[in-house]
Amino acid sequence: MSTGRSPDGAAPPPLRVRTGTDLTEVSRIEELMTSQPELRKRVFTARELAYCDRRKRTGEHLAGRWAAKEAVLKSLGTGLGPRMQWTDIEVVNDRAGRPGVRLYGEAEAVARSLGMYSLDLSLSHSGGLAVAHAVMVCRPTAAHDAPAHTTHTAEGDQRHEA
Q1: Of 4, 12, 21, the residue nearest 136 (C-alpha)
Q2: pLDDT grade, residue 152 (50/70/90)?
Q3: Where are the alpha helices (DSSP H) in 77-157?
Q4: How far is CA 144 from CA 22, 118, 147, in A?
Q5: Among candidates 68, 60, 122, which has minimal Cα distance to 91?
Q6: Can you give the pLDDT at residue 23?
């Protein structure tokens, strides 16, 4: 049985977890998509639009995908950078309806540089709001292998210093 240790007995470096959460008002996204129709194709892929347009409450599903893209950007730690496009992040569903994410272009490059191993997504909408939570698990990379030192402030907050 494997112990998860290297041949020299050293424990493998720990995986890193990066998260992002976003809460979006459905009415705000519906208004944006109505007042700026060109925005639909700048923000959503053709597959995302086809999925949402087939749903009874299209606005809720668009807002969920908007929130998902924001949550993924937060987990990447980048926001929407100069070389990144909204459509670099695509929300897809598996056969059971579970949401997932496909990354392209600059978003994929950033995820690769972080050592992304997996990216899970949770979406929900209720009461005029859509929420998304992204959890990215990353393998250690050279830039992130050194352990950070954690100190506590007088207020109890943690500060991480390299």
Answers
A1: 21
A2: very low
A3: 105-113
A4: 25, 17, 8
A5: 68
A6: 98
Residue with tokens 């976003």: 22
- The pLDDT tens digits of the residues spanning 88-140 come to 999 999 999 999 999 999 999 999 999 999 999 999 999 999 999 999 999 98
Distance CA 12, CA 79 (A): 31
Coarse DSSP helix, strand, coil percentages of the chain, rounded to the nearest 5 percent? 35, 30, 35
Tokens 């540089």 found at = 113
Closest to 108 in 3D by CA, of 128, 83, 86, 88: 88
**23-62 pLDDT tens trace:** 999 999 999 999 999 999 999 999 999 999 999 999 999 9
The total of other beta-carbon atoms located within 10 Å of residue 43's CB is 21
Non-local (6+) Cβ contacts of 93 within 8 A are 51, 99, 100
